Each structure stands twice: as C-alpha cells, then as structure tokens.
Amino acid sequence: MKGAVVYDKERLAAVSKNMSNRWMGETLCRLLGFELRDVTEDLSEYSVAVFRTEDPKPRGELEGRGGRAFNNALTGKIANDKKLAYEFTRDLGIEACSWTSSLDEASYPCIVKSRFGHGGKEVFWANDRREAEEILAEIGAENAIFQRPAKTLGKDVRLYMLGGELISCVERLNPHSFKSNFTLGGRARLIECPPTALEQAKYICKQLDCDFVGIDFIFDGDLPLFNEIEDVVGTRMLYSNGIDAAEIYARYIREHL
Known about the structure:
By secondary structure, this protein is an alpha+beta fold.
C-alpha cells in the first residue's frame, strides 16, 4: 500500500510556515509512512491518500481505481460548495438561516458569501442592494449566496467529527465582527456540545460517509442552525487546546485501511 498526504500548492507552501499545517502534514506522513504530494502531480501510483485540498476530482479518480480517499469525493463535492451544502442539509431536514442564490430574492441586511470561499475570507455584510452589487463585482454573481443573518452575531460552534463521532466542540466568539473565525480574531474555547447540533452533525456525517470534518453551527438565540461543512478542516483550535489532531487522525486512518 502506497499512500500520500495531498495538498494544493498554497497549502503545501504553508506546511513549512504554519505550525498546524506542518504538524498535520508531517505527522501523518511520519506515522503512516506516506509521502507529501501536490494535487497537481500524477497520483496514479497511490492506493490511499489523505486530501488536504478541496478538489473532489482526484479523489474520484482514486476511488475509481479502487483506492481509499480521506475524505471521499462526495464529501469534497458537497462540503466545498456552500450552495450544494445548504441544499444537501435542507433535504436532510436540517435547518439553516434562510438563503437564496438570486440577488432579486435577497432581503436586507444580508450576508453575502462566495459558494467556494473558506475561512470567512469571502463573507460580507450587505445593508442594501447597492452594497450587495458591489460585493458581487468582487466575487461574481454566479458564485454568490445571500443569507439572512443569524439573530446571535459573532458566535458559532464547530464540531470536529471523525468517523461520525465527536472529537471536540469549540465555541468561537468575536465581539467585534459578525464573523467568529479563529483566524480572523475570534476567541475559541472548548465547550460541551449542544445535543441538537451533535445529533445533526452525526446525521450529516452518516449520509456523507466522511472521515475528518468540521461542522459549524450558528445560533438564533439557543437554536443551532447549520452553517458550513469544513472538508479540509483547520486544526489550530484543537492544538491550542492541547488536542493532537494529527495523532488522532493517523490512528483512525490506520484502523480504516
């Protein structure tokens, strides 16, 4: 069995600079005997790969050869397109803030998101149509989601799920922004997982048959609302709370080969 940990060029460059990226990539390779690879390379010699890049195509190719992809191609497809993720969870009966992909159907104020953005970097607040149109000039109208803001701003929880089971639940708070992302200044702390969110996260994982993901919920008061599935889930918040994500993931991978 020949294995690889696969990154895109941007993340591969970050492996040498960012502690969590470096620890994840290097530790998985060391513990599993895998090789570090760029997703643009020929991966046909590998029968198993851990994907730390969003593109579902190479995962599908690996699975088509009878190989094993962590996460699988379905997870890569659904999780990395917000429109598909909202449609997928809606069909499962899981509630999110109301949304539309049509500018003409948007109500204000609203949050404008790129379908393919990550880490809160392509998420914007629009008070009216003019502001929304200015945002669309930057991200493209065909890539946009318009969503009602949650009643509780600057707060979410991320459930780190591995094989459909909870590793940890982290609450993120940002009193200075409606975006709670840890990398954008949000504070993070471990909390007891809200039961409804955990039940819904387990159901999502079961339907996707995914391996290691983060599932984010925002809040209307005490009501958790689905917000996002993170396929290439960041691990800084785990490391900052003394949880070795790479060691845990490596042990899981060994058990599932």
